[in-house]
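Input chain follows. Return structure tokens only.
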Amino acid sequence: MTLSLADRQIAALMRQIATQDMIEIIHPFAEWRTFGALTYIAECYGFRYAGVRLVGKQKMAHIQLVRDTDPAAQQRAAVCRAAFPDPGPGRPAPGMHLGSLTPVPEAQADVDLVTTLIRYDAAGAAADRRQLLAMAWAGPALFLLLAVVTGKYAVLLPLAVLTPAFLLGALRINTVRRAKLAERLVAAGCTPVRDEAGRERFMRPVRHAA
């Protein structure tokens, strides 16, 4: 039997859930809503969303989850395992239409919320403000120095001007995008907090039930 992409993604997730206390969801070119749906499923089985890593030049998203030791989370997981003991081809996964990662109406709001949370964290990981500002000013200085050394002013002077404009523009776009996502999280009842690294994150008011 040929497995659908959703079936393969769910199977890969369930293998991690069965054997690990810390898992990562990695699917190249996956949409954010796919990550949100898979995170929802993992949380139904007793995990909690922990953050996003962007890896490599392509900034591939790695969604990190850890096993939640909170008694309420473990009780939720026990209920979920009883109702959905073996998600897979021809068998439903919690909160999803059969054979897909499309949420059922009752789970849609929770999936949307965790998807927004993932997107917010990913946007923060993609644009380190201090790093971009440093690059925006160090880049022109380097191009000006090279222009003096090589005499190629026609090529290097435009780069000295365009580099900070591009980087500062990217930073501005990212800041606006994160602000919009933050508004949606606050409207959903999430609370802004600072993690141990000083990054602004959001805490959801309650975790969804299976």
